[in-house]
Amino acid sequence: MSRIGRKPIPLPEQVSVKLEPGNRVTVTGPRGQLSAQLAPEMTIEVGEQEVRVSRPTDQARHRALHGLTRSLLANMVTGVSAGFEKRLEIQGVGYRADMDGRRLRVRIGYSHDVLVDPPEGLELATEGTTVIVVRGNDKGAVGQLAANIRKIRPVEPYKGKGIRYVGEKVRRKAGKQAKIGG
After folding, report:
1. Alpha-carbon gap, residue 33 to 14, rounded angstroms
2. C-alpha to C-alpha distance for 138 and 20, rounded to whole angstroms
3. At 136, which helix (H) or strand (E)?
4. Do domains 9-81 and 84-165 have the same CATH topology?
5. Sign of the CA dihedral with 48 first, then 49, 55, and 58 last
C-alpha cells in the first residue's frame, strides 16, 4: 500500500470538499476555490473531518496514481487554507527588483528592464531590492512562475551572480588558474 496514498487528508475549519461525478473535485476555503479533474480510477471518500483516497487494484499504474491523487488533493486543501509561497534572491552588483503596480520589474544586467506580469490568482512582492516573493493558492502555478523568474538570469557558477531560490546552494567553479612552472 502506498505510504502517501493511505494517509488521510485532514480538513481544516472553513474548508469544504465537493466531489462531482468522474472525480471532479472542488475545494473551497478562506483563500478561494480550486478545482481539478483527478484520476477516475481512484475512489475519493469525503468525510466530516478528513478525505481519504483508495485504489481499486494493486497494479503499478494504480499504485502510482494513488499517491499522486492524494498529493494533489492535499495541495489543494493547503492552498485554499494557507496558500503557498516561493522566495527568490538576487545576487550581483547592481542587480535588483521592484514592483511596478502588479508587475515585477527586474534589473539584472541586460540593456533593458525585464517585466514579469503575474498570471491570475498569483501575487508577486519584493522585500527590499533583492528578494522576490511569489504567493498563490495553486502549488504548481507558484512553482512555475518562480522557475520562470529564475530563468531570466540563472546563477552562473564562477561568481555566483543571478537569481536563485532562498537557501539554494550553488557549486562554484575555480575559474582560470595561473600556470605554474616553466
Report:
1. 12
2. 20
3. strand 131-136
4. yes
5. negative
Model confidence pTM above 0.70: yes
- Strand 50-54, strand 9-10: pairing: antiparallel
Candidates 2.60.40.10, 3.30.360.10, 2.30.110.10, 3.90.930.12; CATH matching 84-165:
3.90.930.12
CATH no. of 9-81: 3.90.930.12
Q: Enumerate the domain spans of the chain.
A: 9-81, 84-165
- Closest to 162 (Cα-Cα) out of 173, 149, 178, 177: 149
Task: Report the pLDDT averaged over residues 48-65.
Answer: 92
Q: Cell 501575487 belongs to which residue?
A: 123
Q: How far, in Å, CA of 30 to CA of 62, rounded?
A: 33
Is 142:84 a contact under the CB 8 Å cutoff?
Answer: yes
Which three three-digit cell numbers place residue 119? 498570471
Q: How many CB atoms lie within 10 A of CB 156?
A: 13
Grid cell locating 29: 476555503
**Short-list 24, 140, 5, CA closest to 64:** 5
Q: What is the DSSP string of 62-117?
A: HHHHHHHHHHHHHHHHHHHHT-EEEEEEEESTT-EEEEETTEEEEESSSSSPEEEP
- Under the banding of pLDDT at 50, 70 and 90, the label for residue 182 is low
